[in-house]
Amino acid sequence: MQFTVLTYNTLFAGRDGAKDERAQAQIDLINQVRPDVFLMQEAKGFDANGSAWLYATEERIGMRGFLAVAPRTGQNVAIFIREPLRPLTFEADGAHFHHATATLKVAVPGGNEPITFISAHLCPNGPEVRRREAAYLAVQAAPDRLTLVTGDFNSASPHDPEPEGFDTLPAHHRARYLADDLHGVDRSVLAHLEAAGWVDLGHQLDPAKVATVPTAGFTGTEFATMRCDYLLASASLAQAARHYEVLRTPATDAASDHYPILARFELPQ
Questions:
Q1: Rounded distance, CA 29 to CA 95, Å?
Q2: pLDDT at 43 over 80
Q3: What's the CA gap between 179 and 75, in Å, rounded?
Q4: Is the pTM of this model over 0.85?
C-alpha cells in the first residue's frame, strides 16, 4: 500500500487576527496534494468554540482530525487522516512538552500491523528543554514497529552545515539555538533522536537538505536558514520511504513562516 504524509507548521493556524487568507492558502495546498495523513503544528484556536475550527477543517479537506491541546501555550497540534485509514487509539501529551504532542495509531487496509503517527512541536526556548522533550520521543523508536514522528523540532541537524545567517541573528534569537559552548548552533537534539534509532528522512532522501525556515515571505524574523522541520521514521518504516520533498512554491512562500514537507511511503502487502 502507498500513502502520503504532509507535515506543516501553519503559524497560528494560518490566521492573522480576523484575516484567514493564509489559512485558505493552506487548505488549498492540502486539497491539491491530498495527503493520506496531515500532521499539523500551531493549530491555535482549534479547541475554541466547541472545536469549531477543527470540525470546519475536517469538512474542508475531507479528513478526520484528532486534536492535542497545548494547555500552556495554546499552540495545539493535530493529526488528520483520510479513509481508508482507520483510527485505533489516540493520545495527547500536554504535560511533558512545552506545547504538546499528538499520537495516533491507525490501521492500514491490507497491512500486517498498524502505523503510529506523532505530531510534535518542541520548545522554542532552548536546547536544554528540547533534549528533555526528545527523551520522551526517543523511547518510541522501536526498530520493528512502524512509527513516524514529524513536526517542528526547533533544532538543527548534525548532518547539515551551519545555518545561513545564524551569526547575524539578534542575540535573543540566537540564544534559542546555541550549542552548550555558546558559539555554534546546537545539533544535540537531533543527534540524540538518531542515536535512539530514529531515521531522518530528509537526510536519507534529500541530498540538497532543503531548508524549511524561513519562508520567502517571513525573512528577517527569528530564524536562520535551516532545516527546522523533520520526518523521523522508525527503522522499519524508513525502509518504506520513497519520496521526500519540501514544498516551496509561491503559495507556500507566503502561507506560513515554515515550508511544509510531503513524503510518500510504500508498504509491502
A1: 32
A2: yes
A3: 25
A4: yes
